[in-house]
Amino acid sequence: MITVVGMGAAAGAAPAGDVAAGAELVVGGRRHLDAVRLPEGVRTVVLGALAPALDTVAEYVERGRPVTVLASGDPGFFGIVRALAERFGPERLDVRAGVSSVAAAFARVGLPWDDAVVASAHGRDLRTAVNVCRAYPKVAVLTGPGAGPAELGAALRDDGRVFVVASALGSAEERVERVTPAEAAARDWGTAVSVVLCLDGARALGPVRAVAGVRPGPAGWALAEDAFAHRDSMITKFEVRALALARLGPRPGDLVWDVGAGSGSVAVECARLGAAVTAVERTPDGVGRVRANAAAHGVDVRVVHGAAPAVLAGLGEVPDAVFVGGGGLELPSIVAECARRARRCVVVAVAALDRVPAAREALLGAGLDCDGVLLQSSRLAPLPGDVTRLAATNPVFLLWGVRPHGRTEGVAP
Fold this sequence. Notes:
Structural class: alpha/beta
Strand content: 15-25%
Distance between the termini: 49 Å
Helix content: 25-40%
Strand order of the largest sheet: 13-12-11-14-15-19-16
């Protein structure tokens, strides 16, 4: 067996007893090895690069010799248990979990965390954690080099969040500090940070839930137009929205732009599905409607007031997917700029036939694979005498451009 021991809430917090008793090989970080009593003559490996350490563990396992691996907190939660189980099989593991840094951090601030979303930025792209923090009111971020409180703060300084930065949890040097993102961005936090909690102060407590983690997805989408405030029926109809959402594919960790947002119906629906969303709208009353619709549906949508394509240059972010609504003479340049920036796809809704060729050329010119449909629908409508007719909605062209898999050379902030 490989005994995997979680060392309390964080570095230096050793569990009771001789955790390495009987082991012939003990693997762990230097701080963990220093915190336990090691058997006489035991071989130790200071955990750095994972692959060489696993190769050494394999030598002992193949000879049937006992191994102990020391880790921080709960080693099955974004920890070494995954790598060990993949290499040696879960049946060889005896896991003795400690308190995770996430659980300890929420305990320190007196908050439940069954409704928290946990994102790891350790050795991963920070943008996913940033987008999750924008989309959800209670997030714990496991940090790493180049992805700590300062970097998170710089990315989230305009999103109305509060940070709780927990450092050296479980040790004599433990610190738990509440700061703004701007304050976090201005500091050098060193290497002792265990976890950062990113909270919307007004919603940090959260409702009682039956499902932990990411909130359950909506029971339905492509909501009826009367679910949104809008002006003179200037709103993406639900039939069009349904296919647009299917092509955009919004999900937790994604960033979606809704350009020419109007009522913000597409933006709100993407946010309900867990994506971070930026809505771009040129009219002041439209900006107010987007914000009101987002608040009515209990989601966060960042609203940028300005006219595309010029305003897009000021968005220092790379979207995963973009929805472009409306039309006008600027449509080709808007689509081209969005296609240049999008990591995955751009979806364009066009009412005027004359605008379709230029929009399609803009998608193709950016190297995206392009397809599209003309959507025509007729809805059931009552007539006097308890009978029903079909009422036609205006036809809409829906185009979508998809970046070929693995080709991101054109993507730029």
